[in-house]
Amino acid sequence: MSDGKASSYRVVSAEELRRRALAAARDRLDRANRAALELGALVSAAATTYGGLDVEVPAGSPSASDDPAVIDKLAHQVESQVAATRSRAHEAIARARSRHMQEAANSLLTSLRPTEPLAELKTARASAPAVEVQLDDALRIVRRLPGDAPSSAVERCGQLVTEISSVGPETRRAVLLTALRTEVQAARDRSETVTMNRDELARLYRQLDGLDGEEASSMRGYLRGLPLDSPLPSDLVARVDRVRQEALREQDRRFALQVTREVLEEQGYALGEDFVTVVASADGAVLPLAASRRHGVRVRERAGQLLFNVVRFDKTEDGSSDDDAATAFCQDFETIVHRADEHGLSMTRVVHFEAGSGRMEVRDDESPFTEAVKNDRRSPQVRERRSS
């Protein structure tokens, strides 16, 4: 940085911060409403299989409000309703499924006994009490099968209950009971993992609410694709935090450059449409300094700092006018800082070279500002910096 200044910046605009909070609240509410719809589909599918569950699913609550606090409160209410309803739905599904399996097992017992050959009837009657005892055990076990058990686990448990209800060797039924306990416990362990991961992903989604950009969008898609019944990646929290921090920096960067543009335009500078893009690039943009057509001001943004430095073109010329150019820039910079604060961007100097420091950037290029400088110094045009 030569004969220039570096300032860190911070967004303090109440309007901008409110806009961000509103975007975040709307993202949260949209996600809560989608969860309500998904839960409704789950309950409807279960009701088709097992009959009415007597569970009322929240319909979601779209909001036309533009108050972030109102929308955020509504989102919290929908989230709480969905969580409570999900718990009730899983309990209702588990009860209905247990009744369904018990009815199927009882029906099988009834259908098997009359068809026993006469020679085996006494043996079958003798074993029937043992079957019923072990069937009762099986039905008690299967009642512990969680409502969100996968269809494969439900099917397997149903097969085991059916086999246990069949008249056969008692030792075989004991083995089947052990297998049933194992299957149910695995489903319960899976359900706990799903609940834990759902809560963790909800927290991570909240970290991304209101943020735009390709990385934030990609991360949301990645989170949606993660299986809830498997351990989450060990570095997931760190990855989401990295995306969040970069998205926040980009929001601040865009706001800072827009404010810089507005402040310069208020001072009379006619800036090109690509000003914001150029300033955010590696070389930045060079604006003509009205005090001297041989000088310009380079504007850049780097890692949360706005960088300004005076540039003299044509290295063969002497530097007799450098001090005047740097002094004129210092006066402009004071106005920039003051006006930026009024626009909601607080700038704090971290580097400051006074005029005459001897650190001015000098280039071999001829000045790109070929037109004579007008007496009214509020007329320069933005030019992209030429490569040095």
Describe the protein's architecture and organization.
Strand 3 (295-302) and strand 4 (305-312) form a beta hairpin. 59% of the residues lie in helices and 10% in strands. Strands 1, 2, 3, 4, 5, 6 and 7 form a 7-stranded mixed beta sheet that branches. The protein has 9 helices and 7 strands. The two termini are 15 Å apart. The chain has helices at residues 14-50, 68-112, 118-142, 151-164, 170-208, 214-225, 236-266, 275-279, 322-342; strands spanning 4-11, 285-288, 295-302, 305-312, 345-352, 361-362, 383-384. The chain has 2 domains: 15-232, no CATH class; 256-384, no CATH class. By secondary structure, it is an alpha+beta fold.
Sum up the structure in keywords.
single chain, 388 residues, alpha+beta, 2 domains, disordered C terminus
Radius of gyration: 36 Å
Mean pLDDT: 84
- Name the helicity range: 55-70%
Compressed to H and E, one letter per element, the order equals: EHHHHHHHHEEEHEEE
Q: Helix count?
A: 9
Counting structural domains, the number is: 2
E-strand count: 7
Main pleated-sheet profile: 7 strands, mixed
Which outline best applies?
Answer: elongated
Terminal Cα separation, in Å? 15 Å
Structural class per helix/strand content? Answer: alpha+beta
